[in-house]
Amino acid sequence: MQTYPIFALIADRPCLVVGGGAVGERKVQDLLAAGAKVTVVSPELTPALAALAAKGEIRHLQGDFQEEQINGMALVIGATDDMEVNAKVSAAAQARGIMVNIVDQPHLCTFIVPAQVRRGDLTLAISTGGASPALARKLREELESHFGPEYGPYLALLQAVRTRLLAVRRGDPDNAVLFKQLVDSPLLAALSRGNMHEVRQILLEVLGQVLAAAVLEEILKLTD
């Protein structure tokens, strides 16, 4: 299956999940992690989804799927075990030009959801084009072991550096050199070990002539 890889920006956008079982629950969690406003259509919900609905974190439309429920949605996911319902969800979404994914039925999809590894703002996506979901899972597990939780604070720190550096010297051709020095430095390893003294020294060495010490200390607080 030929695909065009993209990352969809769906924060604060309405998204629909049809199906309130275990698969639907996973899809809802992924959408919430991306900041979407999620509606779930299902006669019943898993306990976790019921808890989210009770807290107002998702909207629950109890009952069977109706075509008009798709109106206004940015994205639709069909996660039921009923082939007929899934086909109706796909047809209704495609008729309205809305992107739709039907779990484990690629012929009914206009997009597929890759296997993912998330570390803060870092997202690694793996797809085999539907050829082997088992291989995609295996590769995801390998990436999870290689890219540990330290990548979350690492990327947050890099983003903070970039924001503050561009604020004082946007357009400076030497910025790219500093960014490269930072990612080529032992900064990640120091964060992984929790050695904040070394992290501070690296930042001072690379950025000390450009950013004030108080700014560097502010950046360091992001890793606390």
Structure write-up:
With 224 residues, the chain is α/β, with parallel strands linked by helices. The chain folds into 3 domains: 113 residues, Rossmann fold; 32 residues, no CATH class; 73 residues, no CATH class. It is built from 9 helices and 7 strands; from the N terminus they run βαβαββαβββαααααα. Strand 2, helix 2 and strand 3 form a beta-alpha-beta unit. The radius of gyration is 22 Å and the shape is elongated.
Summarize it:
With 224 residues, the chain is α/β, with parallel strands linked by helices.
* Rg over C-alpha atoms, rounded to the nearest angstrom: 22 Å
> How many strands, what sense, and barrel or not for the largest sheet?
5 strands, parallel
Spell out the CATH superfamily of the largest domain.
NAD(P)-binding Rossmann-like Domain
Question: And the CATH topology of the largest domain?
Answer: Rossmann fold
Would you spell out the secondary-structure blueprint of this structure?
Layout lengths: L13 E5 L3 H12 L3 E6 L4 H8 L4 E4 L12 E4 L4 H13 L3 E4 L12 E5 L2 E5 L6 H14 L4 H19 L5 H10 L2 H7 L2 H12 L5 H8 L4
Parallel strand pairs: 1-2, 1-4, 2-3, 4-5
Antiparallel strand pairs: 6-7
Question: Key features?
Answer:
224 residues, alpha/beta, Rossmann fold, 3 domains, five-stranded parallel beta sheet, 7 strands, elongated
